[in-house]
Amino acid sequence: MSGDLLRIEDLRVDLPGPSGHRSVLRGVSLRMAPGEALGLVGESGSGKSMTARSVLRLLPRGARTTGAIHVGGVEVGGLDSGGLRRLRSRDVAMVFQDPRATVNPVRTVGDFLGEVLREQGLSRAAADAKAGRILAEIGVDRVERRLRQHPYELSGGLLQRVVIAAALATEPALILADEPTTALDVTTQEEVVAILDEQRRLRSVGLLFISHDLELAAAVCDRIAVMYAGTIVEVLPADRLHEDARHPYTQALLRARPGSVPPGARLETVPGRPQSAFDAPPTCVFADRCPAVADVCRVAVPEFRAVGTGEVACHLVSAEVVHG
Ligand SMILES: Nc1ncnc2c1ncn2[C@@H]1O[C@H](COP(=O)(O)OP(=O)(O)OP(=O)(O)O)[C@@H](O)[C@H]1O
């Protein structure tokens, strides 16, 4: 695939609420190269899931959308039902937070994986063989037995591996992983993240890794996009996160991590409460919570500008760069 794997341009989404439509994405723009892992990070309600769901046109009923999304150069908004089916079943795979909500509880693991593979045109025998092979590749033991088991017989971590196997089975160009480890205990989380990381490198699959955990995302991704109240406020290389983060929100998130302070010292939290696009200020979305807020932040929307190794939308950072 040449060019961008994923290109999102000025995506705006309004969702119906009890008192009319309200904005949940306020102009999201993102690019991913083929095989790249991009971490989409932010607090609850910032719009991470809505961004991922928009890629597959899986938004709630009544959603109003503007902007454009291209996957492998094809505009998702222009796809007919056949094209959309192909996008969802072949080009892009999605892994959700709770594997038990993804896998049909009354079918066996073998049936679940077999169904995904037969949609690709494989015979039953070929589908079963491939399902077993993929499970083994991601470190699932006693594969024959697993294929005959039902979801309730598997731990959450093992079931999430099955979901990842299903995502890999279609050989997609892009995996959207929406908080794939949040529902799991800490040790299992690490295993599942390691599998995703290993497999996406091995197969050169693009990975959009959604998380509220900046450090976790930085450990698996090439770049990090920080989201606040329906906008992207900063994008930077994952390995420069600590050194180069410029946006006050990214800096606050970094200070709010256990391990960012010496043992026994008080952990900072991001001051104020998380906001969604509809309750954040119309100018700089972070103005209400920003420790460095200035008059200009309440007057105009900050432009997204290249600064150092990354890009940032902050009046104060821009002023610093311009005025030295
Ligand atoms: N079905 C829905 N109908 C109306 N509003 C919704 C719906 N789903 C989500 N929202 C709202 O859209 C905004 C963005 O939600 P989204 O789930 O994308 O955030 P998120 O960053 O993924 O948060 P979380 O980490 O909690 O999943 C929130 O204000 C949320 O309340």
List the SSEs and their pairings:
Blueprint: E1 6-17, E2 20-32, E3 37-41, H1 48-55, E4 64-71, E5 74-75, H2 81-91, E6 92-95, H3 99-102, H4 109-118, H5 124-137, H6 143-148, H7 156-169, E7 174-178, H8 186-203, E8 206-211, H9 214-220, E9 223-228, E10 231-237, H10 241-244, H11 248-255, E11 304-307, E12 310-313, H12 315-323
Parallel strand pairs: 3-8, 3-9, 6-7, 7-8
Antiparallel strand pairs: 1-2, 1-4, 4-5, 9-10, 10-12, 11-12
Bound molecules: adenosine-5'-triphosphate.
Adenosine-5'-triphosphate binds at residues 15, 17, 24, 42, 44-50, 60, 212, 276.
Keywords: ATP-binding, Cell membrane, Membrane, Nucleotide-binding, Transport
Membrane topology: Peripheral membrane protein
Protein name: Oligopeptide/dipeptide ABC transporter, ATP-binding protein, C-terminal domain-containing protein
How would you classify the quaternary structure? Answer: single chain
The number of domains:
1
Ligands in the model, by name, code or SMILES, are: adenosine-5'-triphosphate
| CATH topology tier name | Rossmann fold
Task: Quickly name the level 1 CATH class.
Answer: Alpha Beta
User: CATH superfamily membership, which one?
Assistant: P-loop containing nucleotide triphosphate hydrolases
Shape: globular
Secondary-structure content class: alpha/beta
Pfam family, one: ABC_tran
Domain ABC transporter: 6-254
Main location: membrane
Subcellular location: Cell membrane
